[in-house]
Task: inverse folding
């Protein structure tokens, strides 16, 4: 079927093409017992990824002193936002049952965004592979030795490259530069200037494009493929990036245990994650399902001006359809979500796992940011604020309300709802001040 025909015949796709806010409930979602039969990633792989991060903790602690308090483990707080919960109910005339929390990956050490999970992990794995192959490192070593000059000299003979709208570039650039790699970050037109400036201050080469994220990735991949000593971090296809993100679920479970929170059928977990190409939210969602199974419900949130994942999932075309095919060009204030085509790897993994998606208009990003700042004295970047659309719309929208009534029922009153903040700690004060005074519509 031609894309034009899909748009004409599919009412949801028609609304997406008109840049209208939509709610999409995934009718392909299956029970976890059915889903796990065909999982391409094993518990052993996730455990191996966690073990690798533990091995690298001494290096991270030494290279990034801000992680001393967590002994080199890169993790973010889980904070209750009950004041905001009440204000959202009042302001948007909605009901948000249970307890609302903010998972502050916006404040992760090293890169100040969720990309510090996957990006840092992939660079560390690559460094470990190279050093072990060269006979310079053993898995039994104290990895703090990686800060020594001989390792920096060794890694300086290799390149790491990535295409990014900003946050992934920061995590890859900062980590790679700390190890000694030559780093090239290919950045799309919508990347913030302060992110480019920060990377350059770390000795990273930044190549700018007048085009979107897809072009930056395409050129970065081509540039890297031409150099046998270059390694490309591929946000669209990387299993290692994905594995780094899955670890978030193990860490969240530990935080729940510390707070005495139990997730079960009577106390379900509902998670809302802003989505761009899909790697970070997909990895987190996948990890959560592995641990909490049918007791967790994950929704992605995208801007109406860059709804690539919901378009791929709703049509079943995954990465074979772009928002440009339906007349949308990804020019959004949610710069970290400004992606035209979803990851094929992730969209297919989400096909029978994800609960659904919400899209929102750009002006709400700033409204939610002001609400968070006024009620909880917390600041995150506008892209991250997309997550708040989930709890606001969950029982307000007929389709999502029916889904919750059918799947969760009265247990929604005992739920734990988490908005996943994906970035913001490193935003310069002058930029954040502008965000807090930006009014659209």
Result:
């Amino acid at each position: 079927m031609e894309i034009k025909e899909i748009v004409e015949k599919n009412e949801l796709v028609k609304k997406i093409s008109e840049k209208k806010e939509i709610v999409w409930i995934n009718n392909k979602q299956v029970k976890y017992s059915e889903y796990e039969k065909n999982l391409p990633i094993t518990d052993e792989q996730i455990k191996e990824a966690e073990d690798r991060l533990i091995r690298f903790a001494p290096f991270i602690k030494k290279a990034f002193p801000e992680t001393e308090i967590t002994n080199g483990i890169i993790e973010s707080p889980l904070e209750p936002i009950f004041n905001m919960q009440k204000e959202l109910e009042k302001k948007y005339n909605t009901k948000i049952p249970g307890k609302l929390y903010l998972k502050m990956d916006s404040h992760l050490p090293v890169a100040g965004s969720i990309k510090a999970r996957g990006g840092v992990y992939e660079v560390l794995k690559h460094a470990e592979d190279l050093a072990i192959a060269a006979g310079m490192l053993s898995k039994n070593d104290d990895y703090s030795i990686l800060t020594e000059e001989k390792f920096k000299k060794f890694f300086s003979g290799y390149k790491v490259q990535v295409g990014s709208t900003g946050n992934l570039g920061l995590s890859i650039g900062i980590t790679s530069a700390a190890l000694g790699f030559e780093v090239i970050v290919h950045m799309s037109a919508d990347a913030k200037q302060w992110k480019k400036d920060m990377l350059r201050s770390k000795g990273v080469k930044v190549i700018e494009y007048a085009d979107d994220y897809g072009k930056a990735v395409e050129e970065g991949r081509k540039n890297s493929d031409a150099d046998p000593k270059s390694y490309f971090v591929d946000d669209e296809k990387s299993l290692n990036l994905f594995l780094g993100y899955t670890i978030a679920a193990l860490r969240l479970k530990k935080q729940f245990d510390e707070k005495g929170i139990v997730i079960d059928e009577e106390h379900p977990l509902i998670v809302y994650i802003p989505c761009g190409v899909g790697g970070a939210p997909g990895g987190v969602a996948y990890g959560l399902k592995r641990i909490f199974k049918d007791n967790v419900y994950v929704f992605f949130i995208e801007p109406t001006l860059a709804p690539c994942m919901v378009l791929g999932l709703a049509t079943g075309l995954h990465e074979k359809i772009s928002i440009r095919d339906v007349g949308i060009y990804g020019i959004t204030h949610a710069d970290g979500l400004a992606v035209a085509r979803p990851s094929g790897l992730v969209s297919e993994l989400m096909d029978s796992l994800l609960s659904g998606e919400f899209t929102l208009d750009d002006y709400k990003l700033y409204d939610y940011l002001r609400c968070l700042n006024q009620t909880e004295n917390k600041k995150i970047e506008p892209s991250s604020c997309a997550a708040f659309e989930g709890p606001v719309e969950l029982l307000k929208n007929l389709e999502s309300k029916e889904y919750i009534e059918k799947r969760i029922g009265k247990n929604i009153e005992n739920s734990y709802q988490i908005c996943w903040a994906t970035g913001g700690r490193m935003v310069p004060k002058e930029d954040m001040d502008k965000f807090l005074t930006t009014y659209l519509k």
